[in-house]
Every structure is written in C-alpha cells, then in structure tokens.
Write a structure and sequence with these properties.
The structure is a single chain. This protein is mainly α. The mean pLDDT is 87. 71% of the residues lie in helices and 0% in strands.
Length: 95
C-alpha cells in the first residue's frame, strides 16, 4: 500500500469528466457507506450509475456518436453525488 500525501484534507468536489473522477466518486460512496453516512440503497444507486458511465466511456472510444448519451449519464451521476453530499453534510458537521 502506498501512502498518498494530502494532510487529511478533503478534496474539492471535482466535475465528473473522466474515468478517474467517476472511479473516485464510487470510492467516495463506498467510504460514506462504511461510515454509515449514506444508506445501502443510495450506495447501490451510485454504483449502478458509475457502472453505466464507465461502460459508456469505453463505448464512446469506439463510437464517438454516443458522447451526448455519456454526457447525460455523467450529468445524472453528478446530480446524484451532489445530492448525496448534501444529505451527508449534517452528519459531518455534527460529528
């Protein structure tokens, strides 16, 4: 395991424009689930959307005409992540 320097600071919410950013959103949801800041149902919904987006990233490489569909799904995932961050925020401040 490699230690990543960061001083324990939370990363700013980044736009979901790459496979890496989408993967980080999935990891964020996993952490939130483990810390019980989100429900298993919300985590599962995020996982489903991430799977769909990552599949579309691969398909867009071969068929760029699918880019508008990928963008729509990215926007949906970003909205879900934004909503999730708002839901968990009170627990973070109160904890």
């Amino acid at each position: 395991m490699r230690v990543i320097e960061g001083g324990g600071q939370r990363r700013q919410d980044e736009p979901l424009v790459s496979r890496d950013a989408v993967a980080r959103a999935l990891m964020e949801a996993g952490v939130d689930l483990l810390l019980r800041r989100i429900t298993p149902a919300r985590a599962a919904e995020i996982e489903r959307k991430v799977d769909r987006v990552l599949d579309l990233f691969d398909r867009v490489d071969a068929a760029p005409v699918l880019m508008p569909l990928l963008q729509r799904y990215l926007d949906e995932l970003e909205a879900l992540m934004r909503e999730t961050r708002q839901v968990r925020a009170p627990a973070r401040r109160g904890g």
